Amino acid sequence: MAKLSGLLLLLLLPLCLDSLLAVESRDLLSRQLHDSNAYLTKEEHWFDQTLDHFSPTDHRKFGQRFYEYVDFFEVAKGPIFLKICGESACNGIVNDYLSSSAELIVNPKGSVEVLLNSCSSEVKLHELEVVFVIAKKFGAAIVSLEHRYYGKSSPFKELTTANLRFLSSKQALFDLAVFRQYYQGYLNVNYNLSRESPWFVFGVSYSGALSAWFRLKFPHLTCGSLASSAVVLAVYNFTEFDQQVGESAGAECKSALQQITYLVDEELKTDSKSVKNLFAAAELKNDVDFLYLLADAAAIAFQYGNPDVLCSPIVDAMKNGKNLLVSFSLALCFHMIFAIFYFINIF
């Protein structure tokens, strides 16, 4: 969900920039987006990945992109932090919690304490203690593998249905396993190691699910994982999410959003081009895609803690007879400005 929402930011950002930001603000945002300090490294590395891990006869390979940051790596005892990239391009190792600060809350049963102590005897945790995991502190190397079919790691130039049959979470898990073995061998050769480094995997949202599944599927390849907001339970027709958005919105905002949905549906019947232009989405020819854009763009205001930025202007518009769709489009733009800084810092 998080990465899909990130795509929505990119779709709506041009409208937000043109409508809401002065030149100075646009320049500031551009610097934030392209600031090299946001990454520990953007230097690309490549290795040959197996296309189909489940075929005994298909031996095709494709180039898979990865990154490494070894400035803190303590050769004699340092662990490897594998940061899993999810369903988007992976353009480097982001300078976030792995290198600065991340907190792990140990549950009352101490399961995380056991998990982390199995990785490093230096990590001493106690129940209900908050621990800051710092790559520099533990002398860790950080590596990050781009997900197959995203960024520059696509096996095919054309994403036809036939070519997409190798895109699955199961294939991605085995990608991680193959990469883990490849990179461990690479370290052994380049640093003259005779030991297996302790590996700990990190992921957020979909990549968080991969992190948890990787630990379960390949317990011999990793001593533990951090699965943040991991979507480990697949729910078909997940209407409960929309129900929760309605509850979180409150009666007035929920009513305004329902009225907006009605108005958009009516506009699509009579003047779809104008209503799509209002949301900088003229290129979306499929009306269902457009409706999904609006629904998800609104939903992430609640998912990521900015409901007032969205709700206040549309409730005001509904009460005072203002153009509700225009107010909604502007509210989304304000929300996207907040959200894009959130995504820069988190992902």
TrEMBL record:
Keyword set, alphabetical order: Glycoprotein, Hydrolase, Membrane, Protease, Signal, Transmembrane, Transmembrane helix
Residue spans crossing the bilayer: 324-344
Source superkingdom: Eukaryota
GO BP term (any one): proteolysis
GO CC term, one of those recorded: vacuole
InterPro entries xrefs: AB_hydrolase_fold (IPR029058), Peptidase_S28 (IPR008758)
Database matches in Pfam families: Peptidase_S28
Signal peptide: 1-22
GO molecular function: dipeptidyl-peptidase activity; serine-type exopeptidase activity
PANTHER family given in the database record: PROTEASE S28 PRO-X CARBOXYPEPTIDASE-RELATED (PTHR11010), THYMUS-SPECIFIC SERINE PROTEASE (PTHR11010:SF11)
Family, as annotated: Belongs to the peptidase S28 family.
Protein name, per record: Serine protease EDA2
Species: Zingiber officinale
Lineage: Eukaryota, Viridiplantae, Streptophyta, Embryophyta, Tracheophyta
